[in-house]
Amino acid sequence: MKPPAFDYHAPGDLGEALRILAEVRGKVLAGGQSLIPMLNMRLVAPGHLVDINRLTSLATIDSTGTGVRVGALVRHSAAERSGAHPLLTRALKLVAHPVIRNRGTVVGSLVHADPAAELPAVLAVLGGSVRLARWDGGAETRRDVDAGEFFVGPMESAVQPDELAVSAYFPALGPRTGAAFEEVARRHGDYALAGVCAVVTLDEDGGIATARLACIGVGPTPVVMDVREPAAVREAAVERVRPDGDIHATAAYRRHLVGVLAERALRNAVREAEARGA
Prior knowledge:
This is FAD binding domain-containing protein. By secondary structure, the chain is of the alpha+beta class. The protein folds into three domains: 7-51, 2-Layer Sandwich (Uridine Diphospho-n-acetylenolpyruvylglucosamine Reductase, domain 2), CATH 3.30.43.10; 57-171, Uridine Diphospho-n-acetylenolpyruvylglucosamine Reductase, domain 3, CATH 3.30.465; 177-277, Enolase-like, domain 1 (2-Layer Sandwich), CATH 3.30.390.50. It has helices spanning 14-23, 35-40, 76-82, 86-92, 98-101, 106-112, 118-126, 147-150, 233-240, 251-277; strands at 7-9, 27-29, 48-51, 61-63, 67-71, 129-136, 139-146, 151-153, 156-157, 163-171, 177-184, 194-202, 208-216, 223-226. The protein has a five-stranded antiparallel β-sheet with strand order 4-5-10-6-7. Strands 11-12-13-14 form a four-stranded antiparallel β-sheet. The longest helix has 27 residues, at 251-277.
């Protein structure tokens, strides 16, 4: 199928892009790996398309001791190669296939807010945020939205029609902290039937000080939980999730799967934390 008709805009800088978004209601095109198929299937029909690929100022990865800020035009493959954040790198290897990762963007995946996607879980489990910009009263204004408030529902984020997501911030892993990402898909590169991302911090005696999980494919948004009883992590995960069944897996199977993956992710995150603290 062909997409419905739309007006195409190609701003040359961020200010121009924000002014266009303030004047029209349209969709932002960055990587296009989700948007273009949706246009072609006529699942969305925007009157305007704002192509931000000329905004080279948004193609940066900035690392500090406290975290990593990824610009809106950073491709999956570039973020993966940078190795700037170990958990982000690990999750990116699970995203689709190389040809998709060469065009798709990290921030675009977050804004798309697919409940089965890996990157929303990474942002959620780390307690990261997304920076949004808009044109207001003749000037640019920005706000940071925490992951807990950013993912509103399936395919729905907190980005308003006149806003542009300009970057995402992923907090660094602290001392004695390890992470893991485990998922099961029907084929490599497919969306996960279920997945679990874990971040664990050990105390000075080697015990678990904090443990946090984010589950995908089993709710309308990433299901985040703090694990207070590591020995009962499977039961805790199964109790928290509310998966739907479909042609690929029943709700019961997804619930069972997330329990198994929660145990595995927690165990592997502990191993990594032990190695980092050695």
